[in-house]
Amino acid sequence: TIMQKYCPSIAAGGVSCCSDEQMDNLASKIMPAENLLQRCPSCFENFVQHICGMTCSPNQSDFLYPSEVVPFNATHQRITTITYDLSAKYMNTTFESCLQVQAPSTNQLALDLMCGEYGAEYCTPERWFKFMGDVANFAPFQINYVNDPVPEHGLMPYDPVTRPCNEGAPGQPGCSCLDCSASCPAPPPPPPPMVPFTILGADGYAVIMAIVFIIFTTLFLSGVFCCTPQDNAVGE
Q1: In degrees rounded to 5, what are phi and psi of residue 86?
Q2: Hey, where are the domains in the chain?
Q3: Whole-number CA gyration radius for the chain
Q4: Which Pfam families match (predicted)?
Q5: How far is the CA of 182 from the CAs of 97, 152, 186, in angstroms?
Q6: DSSP states of the chain
Q7: Of 16, 178, 179, 195, which is most buried, counting CB atoms within 10 Å of its CB?
Q8: Which residue(s) pair with 150 in the sheet?
């Protein structure tokens, strides 16, 4: 089912606030993000967690607050802005797991297309979520993300389980090296430094050269001395 595909942790709990129609709508709304992040399943699974929580969690009132409501008709109101209390840990881990993901069929990173004017180079978790929460971009209504408890509304940060990009779901591999540098094999260790060659604590090569020099100098001087004609000591 759509619930099991996108929101397995909520589906496993057996209780949700989603109708089939809402799940169909969720699937259609997250499809653009799925198309951009699908190369790295860990990234996409992290990302979709907070959307599932906002849409289907039975504990929404613990971390969501309708901060702006306008009349819809004579009997109903419509929410135009919500405050979403989301843990900094979740935002940071999700951002890090998606930072290097390549957008399919482009020469760009996914966050180049999902972080507005900042692009991937200058994007931060706060900038990314602010851009995605803007009603003018991806969100169906304005979403203002906060990271701290909001006592006046009884909010505590929502902190769903996340995993780094090099760690897949149980039984699944992590993301590829191209989309996650942590998945790349470690470089071989550097070779150990060479042990210097010494003789009695001195540079061994210098000692050998000095010995050779002394030997050849001694042989040369000996040869010169032996081959020089000696004066005849007997007078005529």
Answers
A1: -125, 135
A2: 2-180
A3: 36
A4: NPC1_N
A5: 10, 41, 9
A6: -HHHHH-HHHHHHT--S--HHHHHHHHHHHHHHHHHHTT-HHHHHHHHHHHHHHHH-TTGGGTEEEEEEEE-SSS-EEEEEEEEEB-HHHHHHHHHHHTTPBPTTSSSBHHHHHSGGGHHHH--HHHHHHHHH-TTTT-SSEEEEE-S-BGGGTB--B------TT--STTS----TTT-GGGSPPPPPPPPPPPPPEETTEEHHHHHHHHHHHHHHHHHHHHHHHHSPPPP-S--
A7: 179
A8: 155
The amino acid present at 150, given as its one-letter code, is V
Instruction: Tokens for 7, please give them.
Output: 């929101």
Residues 6+ apart with CB under 8 A from 145: 84, 86, 91, 126, 129, 130, 133
Chain-centre distance for alpha carbon 141: 29
